[in-house]
């Protein structure tokens, strides 16, 4: 079953960028939980931009919306890139992978 499952979940395509926004105060998908996903995506070769902003699980969407619009304008319309986001890696103390993501315990798992 494992081979079939892995074949159904190919690794990320590095030609397709992925953007992840994390709310510093998010207590639903905590920074430690997101770190598990970041490790898994980067282990798979993803072109990942991971950002952090003030907010919780719901409000981070509105606080990051202007940046996301600018990023999409750059990617799709050739506009100037938005200012760099605050990197997820700037969270202190640095979160470790706190809870394994579903379907695996290691970043390289399918």
Describe this structure in words.
- Helix 2 (31-43) links the parallel strand 1 and strand 2 (47-53).
- Helices cover 35% and strands 13% of the residues.
- The model has no long low-confidence stretch (mean pLDDT 86).
- 15% of the residues are buried.
- The chain is an alpha+beta fold and 110 residues long.
- It has helices spanning 2-8, 31-43, 60-77, and strands at 17-23, 47-53.
In short:
The protein has 110 residues and is α+β, with helices and mostly antiparallel strands. Helix content is 35%, strand content 13%.
Helices and strands in order:
Layout: H1 2-8, E1 17-23, H2 31-43, E2 47-53, H3 60-77
Parallel strand pairs: 1-2
Radius of gyration: 15 Å
**What is the 3D shape?**
globular
Overall mean confidence score, pLDDT? 86
| SSE pattern | HEHEH
Structural class category: alpha+beta
Termini separation: 12 Å
Strand content: 5-15%
